[in-house]
Amino acid sequence: MTSAAEQRAPAGEPAAGAGQPAAVMNGVRHAVPPAPMVWPGAPTPLGARFRVGPDGVTGTNFALWAGGAERVRVCLFDEHGRETQIRLTELTHEIWHGFVPGVMPGQRYGYRVDGRWDPWTGARWNPAKLLLDPYARAVDGEFSLPPEVYGHVRDWPEQHVADTVRDDRDSAPYVPKGVVVDDDDDWEDDRRPKTPWADSVLYELHVRGFTKLHPGIPEELRGTYAGLAHPAALEHLTGLGVTAVELLPVHQFAHEDHLLRRGLRNYWGYNSIGYFAPHAGYAASGTTGQQVGEFKRMVRALHAAGIEVILDVVYNHTAEAGELGPTLSLKGIDNRGYYRLQGDARRYADYTGCGNTLHVVQPQVLRLITDSLRYWVTEMGVDGFRFDLAAALARSMHDVDMLSPFLAVIAQDPVLRRVKLIAEPWDIGSGGYQVGAFPPLWTEWNDRYRNAVRDFWRHALPDVREMGYRLSGSSDLYAWGGRRPYASVNFVTAHDGFTLRDLVSYQRKHNEANGEDNRDGTDDNRSWNCGAEGETADQEVRALRRRQLRNLLTTLLLSTGVPMLVAGDELGRTQGGNNNAYCQDNEVSWLDWSLLEQPGWRALADLTSRLIALRHRHPVLHRRAFFSGRAHSADGLRDLAWFTPRGTEMTEADWYAPAATLGMYLSGRDIPGRDERGAPVVDDSFLAVLHAGEGPTAFVLPGTPWAERYEVLVDTSREDQAEPPGTVHQAGTEITVPGRCVLLLRVIS
Known about the structure:
It is built from 16 helices and 31 strands. It is of the alpha/beta class. It is elongated and about 90 Å long.
């Protein structure tokens, strides 16, 4: 009697890797020409690199780290899908390598890796499965998930051991192939914007969703890198005044099986399988290497417009999921070397909620990630990265460790330490919430800012202490180790959750279209529907919602730190209450540009651009150092002061008392630091009054030494925001602040 591990699925058609290489076309088995010669080549760099070899012969060097493997074959595919296998016989430090003369750019390829099949010890080698090169620079073909792409037998009668039964069917016809790419771009004509962190305004967007419905972009370019590089797209970005786009994942990704079975697709892209390859589905020019050049041209166009490119990267897990997931790449190259496994090595340690977690402590995994990061900076031109579930990368053997190998390598790398680094500072594992804990060089998504601002404007904060910290740069989280206010990436919305319009239109999520019975997505939305759930014809409710949008955007863009907007929030984009639209590659997620034709939403976009311009003009609104709160001159005026509606400075008791109104005074006279020529930085001073109460309230404008007069620049109670109100008030007078409103006043001495 054999064990489950020794059992095999009925092989059916022999795998192409067994015996003489062959291909099956239309049910007919064809012999494949003998494999070309292979020279020893070199173990570095990893991947498939086209180059000139010995005696001036051109070809491609293949190098694959596959620790513990017993045999590696590179598999070349012609335009008809016929496979030619070449065995790599050179082995240097667990890297299998060889130079194949005559293999040119555009060649499609993959690997077959032999080794033990023993899932109980984590060994899952299966030569019947064609594997994507982890270093592939381009990927051609769609990922589908028929049974053949799984290393185990999915429908094994005893499901509790199904993952231990090897499936010997060939997966090559069903998986995409890597593509050899010629890297010959020196970027001499590119000029990076190099925007300082303190001056940055981020704009999170989806390449496909941002461009798919844009009427000014030619139809054949919509949904693509070329579409984002089009002047019509650039015009909107530059008109807003954002300094960087933060692109949702553009690494090659795959769709999950449960989505494909429901007729859906992964839209966001947080399911990476190729860390060097631009996602082929976003290319207008082709997928046999053309996507690389198209991506580079997009980056150049954005740079020329003064806009940096930041990539949202997913190095914490891959699309291979857990033990019941497909075998697409790393799982078949060296499962134990690439993934964190439990004590029972059949099972994966899952700190990500996606089935697996990359084992970043392992040198070869760390090398894969850092090689990928450097590639995107040096050869693809990007300016920084936002790391999805960054706490999972910062784990040592188990716990999150701010001295972990990953963070240490980044800190000393001469390329990576110079680019923008943004952490999503949590994962789902024990001790995974690490907001405020990442070391200098890093900025962080600050969800405490998001929660405080949402709660303030729905009038749900018990007092204003939290709001004071968040408006002034979150010094309680980041004023250590030399960190600055721009360590806090402030946001009210992100791709994950309600859009800004939905935040003020829905009390609860409406994710039925995802096919998960509305179980997916968070229930902690901190939203307020303003009196009606969803779309309504009630004009008072609609006017209140637009006012709340103005309040939220104004608060975000006046706060100290780095603001991040989500594409479409400035247009009033809605997802119909779906707060987890990760699988909605349709009008639910795509930007509706027709909103700009509606006066109410056009006014919101105009206000957003005016606030960003105001922020850029005034250093006091994007400080490079934390406020001290102390007086620096005899008149007692401080760089930051807080006021009650009575016009008096807040006391300790005021901070702890229930309140709906907060006055924040920012002094432009006491900005630390000097400009590029060494001169002191001096700016206007401002008073911001935030009132979340339903009805109007009286507010006494602070007198001497704070100001003599105040000019109103922004009043969010007004529908028309095309021009500032221009009203001037004497200091010491009592004004009426409308209900649910932000007033921004400029100090006139």
